[in-house]
């Protein structure tokens, strides 16, 4: 009688993560580079004593930060049990001790804020309804105060926020954002931009940007185009005209990365996760 090797049962875990992206070459693991996923995978593999590979809701670029990144990983059940049994705080709720322990293996610029058992059908990337980003700039004559310099972009010229707001409204909705995306083979550039607005508090300008998903470098490119409008180098209607392009526009540069932070990811109720994944994986076309 042939005996088949036992396949270890796995449990899917959700990880809520924050990081200062300044000294990382982006989220995605890359050989020879310090990345958020690379650092986290190494620490999680140490804690669980089993190979762990995270899948994120969004792969942030070099220098981009997160306070609300979400990722998942499939971890062998026995590895989870063993890691939990090694905890020194058995009175803690499930996984809180692991969060504490993991903090000792991670550098100061990345933190796992929470670990939970993911509901059936959960996928950090494909189950997401939308991602929320914040971009901050300072037009102060001195730039940015040192305590915020890693998270706010210093902008040396005045900006017309009203003009930027008008241009931003024209970009809302389901469109092909090819003009605002770096090309990635096989990836769609059709996205639904759900929010893009600005607020101002003295010299600090804050943009709130939300979409069902973002293609490569899309948020920074949107901001770069809107900054051209804010400096009166382009008219508000120009941004809308870019939506007719079929490839990344060379008429503007992407905004610097340090002002950008992924702040939240929204998910549907647990009983709608599978349906959402099917919708996300479907190939869309602009209306």
TrEMBL record:
It catalyses: uridine(38/39/40) in tRNA = pseudouridine(38/39/40) in tRNA. Its EC number is 5.4.99.12. One of its GO terms (biological process) is tRNA pseudouridine synthesis. The active site is at 61 (nucleophile). The keyword Transmembrane helix does not apply. It is an enzyme of class 5 (isomerase). Keywords: Isomerase, tRNA processing. One of its GO terms (molecular function) is RNA binding. The keyword Transmembrane helix does not apply. SUPFAM superfamilies: Pseudouridine synthase (SSF55120). It comes from the Bacteria. Residues 167-268 form the Pseudouridine synthase I TruA alpha/beta domain. InterPro entries: PsdUridine_synth_cat_dom_sf, PsdUridine_synth_TruA, PsdUridine_synth_TruA_a/b_dom, PsdUridine_synth_TruA_C, TruA/RsuA/RluB/E/F_N. Substrate binds at residue 133. CDD domains: PseudoU_synth_EcTruA. Homodimer. Formation of pseudouridine at positions 38, 39 and 40 in the anticodon stem and loop of transfer RNAs. Belongs to the tRNA pseudouridine synthase TruA family. This is tRNA pseudouridine synthase A. It comes from Mycobacterium asiaticum.
């Amino acid at each position: 009688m042939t005996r088949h090797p036992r396949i270890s049962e796995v449990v899917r875990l959700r990880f809520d993560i924050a990081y200062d992206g300044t000294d990382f070459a982006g989220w995605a693991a890359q050989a020879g580079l310090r990345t958020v996923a690379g650092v986290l995978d190494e620490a999680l593999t140490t804690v669980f004593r089993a190979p762990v590979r995270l899948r994120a809701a969004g792969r942030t670029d070099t220098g981009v930060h997160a306070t609300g990144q979400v990722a998942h990983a499939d971890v062998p059940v026995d590895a989870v049990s063993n890691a939990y049994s090694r905890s020194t705080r058995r009175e803690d709720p499930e996984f809180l001790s692991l969060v504490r322990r993991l903090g000792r293996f991670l550098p100061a610029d990345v933190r796992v804020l929470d670990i939970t058992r993911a509901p059936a059908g959960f996928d950090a990337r494909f189950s997401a309804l939308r991602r929320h980003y914040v971009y901050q700039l300072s037009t102060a004559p001195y730039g940015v105060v040192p305590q915020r310099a890693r998270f706010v972009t210093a902008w040396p010229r005045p900006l017309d926020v009203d003009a930027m707001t008008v241009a931003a409204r024209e970009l809302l909705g389901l469109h092909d954002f090819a003009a605002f995306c770096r090309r990635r083979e096989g990836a769609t550039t059709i996205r639904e931009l759900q929010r893009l607005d600005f607020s101002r508090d003295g010299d600090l300008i804050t943009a709130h940007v939300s979409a069902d998903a973002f293609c490569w470098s899309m948020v920074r490119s949107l901001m770069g185009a809107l900054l051209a409008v804010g400096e009166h180098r382009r008219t508000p209607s120009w941004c809308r005209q870019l939506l007719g392009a079929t490839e990344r526009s060379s008429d503007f540069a992407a905004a610097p990365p340090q002002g950008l932070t992924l702040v939240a990811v929204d998910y549907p109720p647990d009983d709608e996760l599978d349906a959402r994944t099917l919708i996300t994986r479907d190939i869309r076309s602009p209306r």
